[in-house]
Backbone:
């Protein structure tokens, strides 16, 4: 499987090379809009209704609605300045939490995180530490120019990275007005409990396939057999996969972890931990401190 990006997990003063992989894929049947007369794909035209003409990409900006029908217009340069420079990606651990404290409503999309570089020592150390403490890492994840909140937790020999919604993106349930209802009778409750017990079983998602997708694929196959297929020549653009990588460095993990503990406030979690010395710089300093060997045969 091709990695989405290669980056690092920042763990105290330790930086662990890692790679991000998509853990899910959307298989919902999608349909294209076609001209029923000739079978050609319909193109979406960028048109200004006020000027009554087509608009080129160079004339298009992005507007943030501040009031009904009023927009704050931003240029590409202004947006780029707020977003920051594009980076290969990084996972910065903010604090360690109990994953049971995170409500499922906060989860949005999931990824796999595997080791990067030539060594997986640091990757395995972090995974084993989280497994033994039954903790998860709350992280800030930077993908390209966007920083998002996520939870990193051991999943077998890998990490599962679950992207989280921010607090103000979740609608509180108490905003929903419920009608007045009377309590269920003992008989009704017992019948409900019997039904729950009768339908209980172990979770196996493979027992519940996507029936809609299967129906669409079967119907499409029948149309192919009957030659009920619209054919139109098109030129498709081929996506160019991005490349990137982070090289591994030989560092003393125990020393960096010890330094991380010295940087953290006494008797406090790692929240707010500041990296005073990036791991790469620490490793470089250790190399510079060693006496240089003279080349053989030279005086």
Residues:
């Amino acid at each position: 499987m091709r990695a989405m990006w290669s980056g690092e997990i920042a763990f105290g003063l330790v930086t662990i090379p890692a790679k991000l992989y998509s853990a899910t894929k959307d298989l919902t049947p999608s349909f294209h809009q076609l001209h029923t007369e000739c079978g050609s794909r319909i193109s979406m035209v960028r048109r200004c209704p006020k000027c009554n003409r087509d608009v080129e990409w160079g004339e298009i900006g992005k507007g943030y609605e501040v009031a009904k029908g009023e927009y704050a217009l931003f240029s590409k340069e202004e947006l780029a300045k707020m977003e920051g420079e594009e980076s290969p990606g990084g996972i910065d651990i903010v604090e360690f939490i109990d994953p049971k404290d995170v409500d499922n409503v906060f989860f949005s999309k999931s990824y796999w995180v595997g080791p990067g570089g030539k060594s997986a020592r640091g990757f395995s150390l972090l995974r084993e530490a989280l497994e033994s403490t039954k903790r998860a890492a709350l992280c800030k994840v930077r993908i390209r120019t966007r920083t998002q909140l996520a939870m990193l937790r051991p999943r077998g020999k890998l990490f599962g990275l679950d992207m989280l919604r921010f607090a103000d993106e979740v609608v509180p349930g108490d905003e929903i007005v419920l009608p007045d209802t009377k309590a269920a009778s003992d008989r009704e409750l017992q019948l409900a409990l019997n039904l729950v017990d009768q339908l209980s079983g172990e979770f196996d998602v493979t027992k519940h396939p996507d029936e809609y997708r299967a129906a669409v694929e079967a119907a499409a196959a029948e149309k192919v057999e009957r030659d009920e297929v619209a054919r139109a020549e098109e030129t498709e653009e081929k996506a160019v996969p991005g490349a990137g990588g982070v090289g591994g460095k030989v560092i003393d993990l125990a020393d960096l972890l010890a330094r991380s503990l010295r940087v953290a406030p006494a008797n406090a979690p790692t929240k707010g931990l500041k990296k005073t010395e990036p791991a790469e710089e620490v490793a470089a300093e250790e190399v510079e401190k060693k006496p240089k060997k003279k080349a053989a045969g030279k005086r």
About this structure: Residues 1-25+74-168+248-274 form a domain with the Ku70; Chain: A; Domain 2 fold (CATH 2.40.290.10). Confidence is low (pLDDT under 50) at residues 235-248, 269-299.
